[in-house]
Batch of 4 targets.
Target 1
Amino acid sequence: MSGSPDPAVPEVPVPDVWEALQRNSAAQLIDVRTKAEWTYVGVPDLAACGRQVVLVEWQAFPSNQVDPQFVDRAKEAIAGLGASNDTELFFMCRSGVRSLAAARAMTAAGFSRCHNVTGGFEGQPDADRHRGRLSGWKAAGLPWVQG
């Protein structure tokens, strides 16, 4: 796993996240994009790991306001899966910006093993301004489904 510009929240490339999810049955992938993104863009498919991605919005669409209840909602979602404050948690958004903020918030709330997924689900746009081709979950060829 690679280094990070934020020492409190390590950046982890998507192939390493996939490997960690397969290796560690307690680890969780938390997708913090919006409901619209989950529905129309897709979500990681973790069936091969025997679990589902945890879906908790960091910001509500269309207001783009950070959900003041995010930490509580995320805690509730992962507690229902048996996760604790020392469970390995991987946070993902479209490109890695919102998920870094979410991982920082959860770290501040006492979760000791929060990671940001480098490149997120779709990564940076290419020369044609299309995402999902250069970096991220989709570009890495990892399993995903469209809702």
Note: The CA atoms of residues 37 and 43 lie 8 Å apart.
Target 2
Amino acid sequence: MRTSELNRETKETKIGLSLNLDGAGKGTIETGCGFLNHMLTLFAVHGGFDLTVRASGDTDVDYHHTVEDTGIALGAAFAGALGEKKGVNRYGSVILPMDEALVLCAVDLSGRAYLGWDVPLPAARVGDFDTELAKEFWWGFVRSCPSAVHLRELAGENTHHILEAVFKGMGRALREAAAIDPRRAGAVPSTKGTLL
């Protein structure tokens, strides 16, 4: 089983997280931020990951620390569940439509952290969520699960739909990248022999 559990505690946030890469898409998400709960539930369902997140933070300030630290924790859990990445596809990509929104999500589990973010968001807020925090979430993810992630908005007018396409698309792209390729017979998919 490719699973990971972790607890991350700082002066700003406290996060408990469990992840099963080969799950059934079951999400139990409680972050104190309704929009983030919604996005992570979509991510789990469309990625086919079993994901439990219980986070509390200084939301009296804003959601910044909770969102960023949850991204860091999710990335660390992914890295832990992937282990040495033997037999994985390594690459995953999808162009995902969500009504008028269309977003490209591409992932390389390369061991090198990079985020290409070209996702113009028409609205600064969705409900009480600062939409610029979506980029902070994915930066946190790639820093703790070193990978090259490219997110590009190809079309979109509704900010909720655009961000929904990002999180659904990342679930699908990461599912593809993390999937085991039986032809690899447990080999690391790199001519270097390592993805670190």
Note: The chain has one domain: 3-184.
Target 3
Amino acid sequence: MNNIDRMFTRDPVAFADAYLAYLRAVLERIDTREVGCFIKTLLDARARGATVFLIGNGGSAATASHMANDLCIGCDDDGQPFRAVSLTDNVAVMTAISNDFGYEHVFSRQLRSLGRKGDVLVAISASGNSPNLLNALEYARECGIKTVALTAFDGGKMKAVADEGVHVPTDFKEYGPAEDAHMVLDHLVSAYLSRIIRAT
């Protein structure tokens, strides 16, 4: 039984209070030094004209799309936008790869076509154990693409194999707080990037 199960009550107001209190506690345990490293990696990619690729499954796929939007559009204040691409957005490509090669290759095969040495791959996952994300991280490492893992639960295998990452410390199967926190990280990072770009 995880924290969400333990806090459940039939009283919706009490549940809302407990959920938000728990989410605040999760956010407070994020290592801000990891966030700082992530920001520096993104700024370095922008300075070099490298592409930032984002990947994830389910809710994390939506986070990948949202983050690509925030980097490309939300941080374009000086005419030098981030080159950010979510590999979760092309349904035709994703279904073709899944059908022909298997879903575990849905991101690595796209990186084969689009990725270049010096690019950055951001993999987003609560469990950190999705085969398609791990395959993409392995391919990226072989090709000289820097890897960042945004994880939760115990970080899974992704936390160990990525070059760097930001870990959200939640209990197992707490997908809501994990994905909530990943979106907070997106908005935190984007808020900083848009302002530091304007200030330079």
Note: The mean pLDDT is 96.
Target 4
Amino acid sequence: MYSVGKIYIRTPPAPSTPPELPGASTPPELNKALLDHFFPGEPATFLDTILLPFRDCLPLSLDEVGRTLARSSATSAPGPDMTPNSVWKRVHRVAPQLIHDLLAPLVTFGSHPLTL
């Protein structure tokens, strides 16, 4: 902000720029750097067989997901992507069905991909 006489003129905000990461000066490089950071390692291999649901598996409930997240420490990060539980708790507050819909098939079919 600067003034001209008694009139104050507001300067426009600086344009938003993407974060700078080493070796990521273009959008595709930034995309690759973020994917490599949040999803390290080799891509998950697909199973050659069809997974069958467990017969004795109780369905996962929204309440169970909520209770589990409530008991977890907000500062810990359970997976290799190092996403803290505080992020998962915030996602659950905004869209509780989302985490349930992601986890329910994994519980039903007894699959736990390494990327999780």
Note: The beta strands are 2-4, 7-9.
